[in-house]
Design a protein that fits this description.
three-stranded antiparallel β-sheet; alpha+beta; 475 residues; five-stranded antiparallel β-sheet
Length: 475
């Protein structure tokens, strides 16, 4: 039940830190305080580069305007650029007779970059989302989460992998199916309600994610409980019989998690529109240092937080296929963050090198996640209790490759001393030894065993077997 407590505490901290309004009629016009920033750009349009981010309440001097959408401004530090006019509001510094294009002070609107939610009067879905951001709604969500937590705890007692329980003594799946249907229905209602009022990415998405997770605990975990309760145990190990719920429980869980993943993935990917990392040191050593720090940060995040917290606890009931998709979505977010960082920090050849290093970083990060999950996570009961039990050597094999490469003119015996050599190529034969082995792993919880195939290549010989060139001599 640790995964439920993590989500529950995260939900409490999230909603408690948000500005909520009371349940009076006029409270509906108030906005939630956001935490994002507005971009100051080099030109009027989103295609121009980003100078830096502007924080809520920061004062700007209006220099001019480019139409109605973009305003040319100067910051208190003397930086010049353009800001979308919809993100600005007039402050008390405006003097009599001044207008928008003659030096009026503006500040970043603290509510402008939380897109206005499309509330519709009389709509059940709009009224529900509006209710969630009140004090009463905060209490309602916590009570809902507590109820789901209690139901999940009770169903854990009913549906579990009980090694010494005969099949005929196991609880009926009826109550579990009923709980999943109710949880899925309410979660789908919440998803439709959120996207009926949501206009774009904003800081509200974190609260929306917690809303969906709070109502989706049962639909995400109970099908998996039904699945493992149908596994064969010591009473039927010889006959190989299994309850049918082991099959349809896994299928039901896949569909339930798919419903949850789609909106959560949208929130996650779009959140990177408001996250910017930029460095001013556009030099080789600055680029190397920046990418090294980015590698350190993302590797620690993937290796420890993502694997041992998110995957181990929050995604414990997710099957391996969906978990692989979620890992790719996580890597996609890191790629977006790194791509924006490279584009805003480096130019020219340093930008190209940084993109190449970014690809290498992604391979290292995803490789660390994949390796840990394969070794520790049991594909049967999804616990992180996998134990290494041994290695089987599968022997070695040799592979020969041929490749044409550029040749050196100094290696050619010229026929004429002053001749010109062109199209100098050499055929290289490379022999590689491929070592293969299997590592064996065991789950002490459900007694499942699995193997992981491994291989490595080592170059043992490389030599030139043929040379070709053109020699031109003019008397």
């Amino acid at each position: 039940m640790k995964q439920y407590l993590i989500i529950y505490l995260t939900l409490v901290l999230c909603l408690w830190g948000c500005e909520r309004h009371d349940s009076s009629d006029d409270a509906y016009v108030k906005e939630v305080t956001p935490t994002t920033i507005v971009n100051l750009r080099t030109g009027p349009g989103q295609g121009h580069g980003i100078v830096r981010g502007l924080h809520p309440g920061e004062k700007l001097v209006v220099v001019g305007s480019d139409g109605e959408e973009w305003i040319e401004v100067t910051t208190s530090g003397g930086e010049k650029g353009y800001v979308a006019s919809k993100y600005l509001e007039e402050t008390g510094y405006k003097e009599s007779g001044q207008n928008l294009s003659s030096g009026v002070y503006h500040g970043v609107d603290e509510t402008a970059y939380t897109p206005h939610l499309r509330y519709k009067d009389g709509s059940l879905m709009s009224d529900y989302v509006r209710f969630v951001f009140t004090d009463s709604g905060f209490i309602f969500i916590l009570i809902l989460f507590a109820i789901q937590y209690g139901v999940c705890f009770w169903l854990k007692k009913c549906y579990n992998f009980r090694q010494y329980m005969p099949m005929y003594e196991r609880k009926s799946a009826g109550w579990g199916i009923f709980a999943v249907i109710v949880s899925a229905a309410f979660t789908i209602f919440q998803i439709i309600s959120i996207f009926s009022v949501r206009e774009g990415a904003s800081s509200n998405d974190f609260v929306f994610s917690m809303m969906i997770l709070s109502s989706g605990l049962i639909m995400a975990t109970v099908p998996w409980r039904l699945k493992i309760s149908g596994y064969r145990n010591i009473h039927c190990m010889s006959s190989g019989a299994e309850d049918s719920r082991a099959d349809w429980g896994g299928t039901l869980g896949t569909w339930m998690w798919t419903i949850l993943i789609i909106p959560l993935a949208v929130f996650y990917i779009q959140s990177f529109r408001y996250i910017r990392i930029s460095f001013d040191d556009d030099s080789f050593f600055g680029m190397v240092w920046t990418m090294a720090m980015f590698l350190l940060f993302t590797w620690v995040f993937c290796k420890y937080f993502w694997t041992y917290v998110v995957v181990k606890y929050m995604f414990k009931s997710m099957n391996s296929v969906l978990l692989g998709i979620v890992n790719c979505i996580m890597g996609w977010g890191i790629a977006i963050l790194g791509y924006d960082m490279c584009g805003s920090s480096f130019n020219g050849i340093f930008y190209i090198i940084s993109l190449w290093l970014l690809v290498l970083i992604l391979m290292i990060d995803l490789g660390s996640v994949l390796t840990t999950v394969n070794e520790k996570r049991c594909g049967n009961c999804h616990t992180f209790e996998g134990k290494y039990t041994g290695t089987t050597d599968l022997g070695s094999s040799y592979r020969t490759e041929y490749d044409w490469k550029n040749g050196s003119d100094s290696m050619i015996n010229r026929r004429h001393e002053n001749s010109v050599i062109s199209e100098n190529r050499r055929l290289v034969r490379t022999t590689k030894r491929v070592d293969k082995w299997k590592t064996h792993h065991h789950c002490p919880n459900c007694y499942n065993d699995w193997d992981i195939d491994n291989s490595s290549e080592t170059t043992v010989a490389s030599n030139t077997v043929e040379r070709r060139w053109k020699e031109t001599y003019i008397e």
